[in-house]
């Protein structure tokens, strides 16, 4: 990761940068701890969103090419109702189904991990909710964590992934085991995994 500076007073930027670091970290853990990302929920979100945009674009095009009178036709009315229905479902999907989830993944052995994050505007606290389940769906660990962004961002806004990963590994059992495995493999020089 480059030394790109993030505005330190932008909670949204701090959260987004931290969230973006999860995918490379969790997908590059040493075997057998590596997670494969499951993008099903985000794919459904994109499908709903792009469908609504396509309908909006189609009705706009009809209005521009056919004139105002065409917008009173039954198919335009159906398209507008469908657009609002899709946007309602999309809003529900984002707030109730995804609910802040930034990573959902699965190990080869079948265990799954779901990580949701949040941060309040003008707050320095990064909140993480981790749910780690067995292949049968039994919850092996569920934990809510929080730490200040200053733990892995420097005063000038540079993101440092090593302290971020160490914090997660100190709190989440499977990540702690992965860090220990990595430490064994590289001779104890560092427990940091992922790029």
UniProtKB/TrEMBL annotation:
<dbReference type="GO" id="GO:0006465">
    <property type="term" value="P:signal peptide processing"/>
</dbReference>
<dbReference type="InterPro" id="IPR009582">
    <property type="entry name" value="Spc2/SPCS2"/>
</dbReference>
<keyword id="KW-0472">Membrane</keyword>
<keyword id="KW-0812">Transmembrane</keyword>
<comment type="similarity">
    <text>Belongs to the SPCS2 family.</text>
</comment>
<comment type="function">
    <text>Component of the signal peptidase complex (SPC) which catalyzes the cleavage of N-terminal signal sequences from nascent proteins as they are translocated into the lumen of the endoplasmic reticulum. Enhances the enzymatic activity of SPC and facilitates the interactions between different components of the translocation site.</text>
</comment>
<keyword id="KW-1133">Transmembrane helix</keyword>
<dbReference type="GO" id="GO:0045047">
    <property type="term" value="P:protein targeting to ER"/>
</dbReference>
<feature type="transmembrane region" description="Helical">
    <location>
        <begin position="44"/>
        <end position="62"/>
    </location>
</feature>
<keyword id="KW-0256">Endoplasmic reticulum</keyword>
<dbReference type="Pfam" id="PF06703">
    <property type="entry name" value="SPC25"/>
</dbReference>
<dbReference type="GO" id="GO:0005787">
    <property type="term" value="C:signal peptidase complex"/>
</dbReference>
<feature type="transmembrane region" description="Helical">
    <location>
        <begin position="74"/>
        <end position="97"/>
    </location>
</feature>
<protein>
    <recommendedName>
        <fullName>Signal peptidase complex subunit 2</fullName>
    </recommendedName>
</protein>
């Amino acid at each position: 990761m480059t030394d790109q500076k993030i505005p330190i007073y932008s909670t949204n930027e701090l959260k987004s940068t931290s969230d973006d670091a999860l995918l490379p970290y969790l997908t590059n853990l040493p075997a057998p701890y590596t997670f494969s990302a499951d993008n099903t929920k985000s794919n459904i979100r994109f499908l709903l969103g792009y469908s609504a945009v396509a309908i909006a674009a189609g009705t706009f095009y009809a209005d521009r090419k056919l004139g105002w009178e065409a917008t009173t036709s039954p198919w335009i009315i159906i398209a507008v109702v469908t657009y609002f229905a899709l946007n309602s479902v999309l809003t529900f999907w984002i707030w109730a189904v995804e609910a802040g989830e930034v990573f959902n993944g699965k190990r080869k052995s079948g265990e799954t991990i779901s990580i949701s994050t949040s941060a309040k505007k003008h707050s320095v606290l990064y909140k993480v909710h981790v749910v780690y389940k067995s292949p049968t769906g039994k919850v092996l660990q569920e934990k809510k964590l929080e730490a200040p962004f200053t733990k892995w961002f420097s005063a000038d806004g540079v993101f440092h992934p090593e302290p971020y990963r160490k914090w997660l590994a100190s709190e989440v059992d499977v990540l702690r085991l992965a860090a220990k495995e990595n430490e064994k493999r590289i001779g104890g020089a560092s427990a940091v995994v992922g790029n």
